[in-house]
Amino acid sequence: MTDTEPSPAVSETAESIATMEIRGAATIASAAAEALADQAEAAAEADATAGDPEAFRASLRAAARTLRETRPTAVSLPNALRYVLQRMEGDSVDRLRRSVVDASEAFVEQLDRAQEDLGQVGANRLADGDTVMTHCHSTDALACIEAAVEQGKSISAVVKETRPRQQGHITAEQLRDAGVPVTLIVDSAARRYLDEVDHVVVGADSIAADGGVINKIGTSGLAVNARERGVPIMTAAQTIKLHPETLTGHTVEIEMRDEAEVIDPEAREAIGQIDVENPAFDVTPPRYMDAIVTEQGQFPPESIVTLMRELFGEGAAEPWAEP
Ligand code: RUB
Question: Residue 78's closest CA among 33, 140, 12?
């Protein structure tokens, strides 16, 4: 390892996030924080960094940049890196190492606690006997449904498969394991089934300052249909999903993924010259979302900016940048 090279564990985590072996905004965030702790341990041992606090800091910043570049949309990733790097302090490599490892552990602990707390808030919106509809696979959304079940409520679920990668299958399995009766449907059947649903529960990859919810592609159409049918829809999102850069007018980058996820290359060849596009996320305007459920309570989307200012001030530092 040279002074700025990522440790093998950082490279492995970055690769797993990029290939979606590690996926979902909260899971990506905790994996990134843990990878920085690993970088700190490795840099405290490596010849190039062990005796040089500035080289150690540079190697942590470089590792954060490697992790940052994996996927662009879930703000939980840069927020995790920010949390850890802003707590890196000390005038010796050993103190720096300790501060990074401690911050990483504290971040993961807070993440788990936040999910538990928001689960309670979201569960209070669900009533005994409710049927919920889900989209994609969100650990925050599942926390709400599971907490409702733990409160003794009987909940059933209509689970959208979520093309093209079918993360709905993971949701179906986890809900089934929690004792929730599940009906799996294709995405295009959602509107038909909304008549049988009491609540739509989705997660978020990022939440913009205007209350726009960035989540798996298809969320915005689902929200519009839910509003038209009079079915309430909530986003379950820990505050690490709040996107500080949107406070200063930046928009959230929507990840475009490989067209082979949409159509098999041979089938495409058979069709002839066509364009294929595969955006992974979309933006649901705040007026179509009933509530954003966080570990700090529930908020109408339009008021989320107040919480954002409290947590981030007017913008976001980039502690991974070269000084
Ligand atoms: C996952 C997705 C999830 C959010 C929230 O997309 O859109 O709804 O990330 O998940 P992908 P969580 O599969 O492309 O990563 O609540 O677990 O953070």
Answer: 33
Domains parsed from the chain with CATH numbers: 6-114 (1.20.120.420), 124-310 (3.40.50.10470)
How far away, in angstroms, is 203 Cα from ligand 1 center? 6
Is residue 205 flagged as an active site residue? yes
Catalytic, 177? Answer: no
Name the catalytic one among 117, 136, 140, 282.
136
Task: Check whether the bond before 319 is cis (ω within 30° of 0).
Answer: no
Query: Is 71 marked as a binding-site residue?
Result: yes
Report pTM: 0.96
- Binding residue per annotation — 272? no
Residue with tokens 């009987």: 154
Helix (H, G, I), strand (E, B) or coil at 299: strand
Per-residue pLDDT of the chain (323 residues; tens, 9 = 90+): 555 679 999 999 999 999 999 999 999 999 999 999 999 999 999 998 999 999 999 999 999 999 999 999 999 999 999 999 999 999 999 999 999 999 999 999 999 999 999 999 999 999 999 999 999 999 999 999 999 999 999 999 999 999 999 999 999 999 999 999 999 999 999 999 999 999 999 999 999 999 999 999 999 999 999 999 999 999 999 999 999 999 988 999 999 999 999 999 999 999 999 999 999 999 999 999 999 999 999 999 999 999 999 998 766 789 999 88
